[in-house]
């Protein structure tokens, strides 16, 4: 099960009600998985700054942890716009020469501290519980942007906590996020291959490999289309995935069409989601939807 | 004719109300179905139901004798395991439309997803658009008519289902072969299309004589050690 949803506004002005669109779709898909919910939204760029969302861990001392993270960050670059919501810290800073080193510095604060998202436009918020609870905590319906993807999870193979929730940021690749419905059956094989190259995995969730894989392909090919085409060859199992970058959103569906994924497109926007019920709940009836075919991928870009 | 609104009601309540109205001889129009699942499942009497919008998974499944029309699209498993009756979808259908039907007619006036007609035993499935991956898979009887294109692995591992394709066939499945159509086939196709397709749409579709006929080559019907290669490929 699991439900995924994506909304892409074609005007590119980053003022579309993306948060509300993705939230309304997730609410309709909530019965496909009540374990956790999350969104990855692409908001207006704030100067040239990187935006970071950091999970402060489960020890209940979020305030101290936040201060500690800001202290560590300040050695590298000045932290701006610092705020905390629940166990989340948000801050912006001038992009350092080595974003990987920045991530490692922040995560040295504690083993349960994780950079959940990093990018010039990407912000991921996710937590255990329903889409309604996600809205209560983060008010995502008020967030505007150019595009966004979301996920509501039914856990089948790994634990239920914030880190195992989706969307996944592809750690180390700014602005790249994925959501996935399905199972990657060659997960352990692929994971071993990346671990041998030094990649750190944050979860036991097979979906995490998709972000790692797409980031790796993007570094080598610099094309989301080519990365999705390659995924059809290298990933085994069942998958309907949405993948987003700072200016694009795409989907890929496995060669056997094991998992549902529908999409609709108008002159203003492109929408993708697991079931039509999400489209009917979030948009008016004129939106015509189509089931994506087996071995199909597509990218929308501004 | 009776109307009911699906808004604010549970699926169980909607289905019970449809059944109650059908029992007193009413034709039912259900408004705002909202693409929800399991609508009009297990209708065992004759009667007519119209959904004024899209429906979700398993609509009109396990049905025996009723007529269901969907003025929108349908999700996965449309009319699954139907015994008899008629289901017409004016938009597109998701995966596995007409799965395992034992009779009746399923009409999709748009595209249909992967595994259309999987394991169908009898009846007719008519798709005016294209069909997805592995349509007709393991079909045991009945007829699958695809006016548009068929995706990869059409008619894989079939028994006695007959597929007719008006457009391109991306690739035949294991043991599927193209054979000559008979005059009866052409007449059957013309009659079926005239009966179920509105005239405005009919003009753009192929004629009975333009379809290619795909059946089982019967190589997989009985295991033969001497044909190990065929089996290795099929499995």
Query: What percent strand of chain B?
Result: 15-25%
Mean pLDDT rating of chain B: 96
Architecture per CATH nomenclature, i.e. the level-2 architecture of chain B: 3 Solenoid
What's the N-to-C terminus distance of chain B? 52 Å
Strand order of the largest sheet of chain B: 1-2-3-4-5-6-7-8-9-11-10
CATH topology of chain B: Pectate Lyase C-like
Q: What structural category do the secondary elements of chain A indicate?
A: alpha+beta
Summarize the structure.
Chain A has 302 residues and is an alpha+beta fold.
Description:
- The complex is a heterodimer of chains A (302) and B (235).
- With 302 residues, chain A is of the alpha+beta class.
- In chain A, 28% of the residues lie in helices and 31% in strands.
- Chain A has eight helices and 16 strands.
- Chain A has a seven-stranded antiparallel beta sheet, covered by helices on one side.
- In chain A, strand 13 and strand 14 form a beta hairpin.
- In chain A, helix 2 runs antiparallel to helix 3 and helix 6 packs across helix 7.
- Chain A is globular and about 50 Å long.
- The two termini of chain A are 31 Å apart.
- Chain B is built from four helices and eleven strands.
- Chain B is globular, with a radius of gyration of 18 Å.
- In chain B, helix 1 links the parallel strand 1 and strand 2.
- An eleven-stranded mixed beta sheet of chain B has the order 1-2-3-4-5-6-7-8-9-11-10, with helices on both faces.
- Chain B is an alpha/beta fold and 235 residues long.
- Chain B has a single domain, classed as Glutamate synthase, alpha subunit, C-terminal domain (Pectate Lyase C-like, 3 Solenoid).
- At the A-B interface, helix 8 and strand 15 of A face loops of B.
Fill in the keyword field for this structure.
heterodimer, A: 302 residues, alpha+beta, 7-stranded antiparallel sheet, 5-stranded antiparallel sheet, 8 helices, globular, B: 235 residues, alpha/beta, Pectate Lyase C-like, 11-stranded mixed sheet, 4 helices, 11 strands, 24% strand
């Amino acid at each position: 099960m699991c439900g995924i949803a994506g909304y892409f506004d074609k005007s590119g002005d980053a003022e579309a009600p993306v948060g509300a669109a993705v939230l309304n779709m997730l609410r309709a898909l909530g019965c496909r998985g009540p374990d956790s919910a999350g969104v990855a939204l692409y908001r207006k760029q704030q100067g040239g700054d990187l935006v970071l969302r950091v999970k402060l861990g489960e020890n209940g001392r979020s305030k101290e942890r936040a201060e500690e993270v800001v202290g560590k960050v300040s050695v590298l670059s000045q932290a701006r716009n610092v705020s905390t919501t629940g166990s989340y810290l948000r801050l912006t800073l001038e992009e350092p020469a080595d974003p990987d080193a920045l991530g490692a510095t922040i995560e040295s604060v504690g083993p349960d501290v994780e950079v959940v998202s990093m990018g010039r436009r990407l912000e991921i918020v996710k937590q255990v519980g329903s889409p309604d609870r996600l809205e209560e905590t983060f008010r995502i319906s008020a967030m505007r942007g150019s595009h966004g993807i979301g996920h509501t999870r039914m856990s089948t193979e790994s634990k239920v906590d914030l880190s195992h929730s989706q969307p996944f940021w592809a750690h180390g690749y700014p602005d790249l996020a994925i959501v996935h419905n399905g199972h990657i059956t060659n997960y352990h094989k692929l994971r071993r291959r990346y671990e041998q190259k030094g990649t750190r995995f944050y979860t036991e969730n097979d979906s995490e490999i998709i972000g790692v894989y797409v980031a790796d392909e993007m570094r080598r090919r610099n094309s989301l289309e080519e990365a999705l085409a390659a995924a059809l060859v290298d990933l085994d199992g069942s998958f309907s995935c949405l993948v987003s970058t700072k200016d694009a959103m795409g989907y890929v569906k496995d060669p056997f069409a094991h998992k549902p994924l529908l999409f609709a497109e108008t002159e203003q926007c492109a929408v993708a989601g697991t079931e039509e019920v999400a489209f009917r709940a979030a948009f008016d009836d004129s939106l015509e939807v189509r089931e994506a075919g087996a071995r199909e991928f597509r990218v929308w870009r501004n | 004719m009776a109307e009911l609104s699906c808004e604010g009601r549970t699926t169980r309540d909607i289905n019970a109300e449809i059944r109650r109205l059908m029992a007193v001889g009413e034709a039912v129009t259900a408004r705002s179905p909202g693409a929800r699942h399991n609508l009009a499942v297990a209708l065992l009497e004759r009667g007519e139901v119209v959904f004024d919008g899209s429906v979700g998974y398993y609509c009109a499944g396990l049905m025996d004798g009723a007529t269901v029309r969907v003025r929108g699209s349908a999700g996965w498993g449309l009319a699954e395991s139907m015994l008899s009756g008629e289901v017409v979808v004016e938009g597109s259908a998701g995966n596995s439309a007409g799965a395992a039907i034992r009779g009746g007619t399923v009409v999709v006036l748009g595209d249909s997803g992967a595994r259309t007609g999987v394991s169908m035993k009898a009846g007719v499935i008519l798709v005016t658009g294209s069909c997805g991956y592995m349509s007709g898979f393991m079909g045991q009887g009945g007829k699958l008519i695809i006016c548009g294109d068929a995706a990869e692995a059409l008619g894989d591992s079939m028994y006695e289902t007959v597929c007719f394709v008006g457009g391109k066939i991306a690739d035949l499945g294991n043991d599927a072969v193209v054979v000559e159509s008979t005059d009866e086939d052409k007449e059957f196709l013309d009659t079926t299309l005239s009966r179920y397709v509105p005239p405005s749409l009919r003009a753009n579709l192929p004629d009975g004589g333009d379809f290619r006929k795909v059946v089982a080559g019967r190589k997989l019907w009985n295991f033969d050690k001497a044909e190990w290669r065929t089996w290795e490929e099929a499995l």
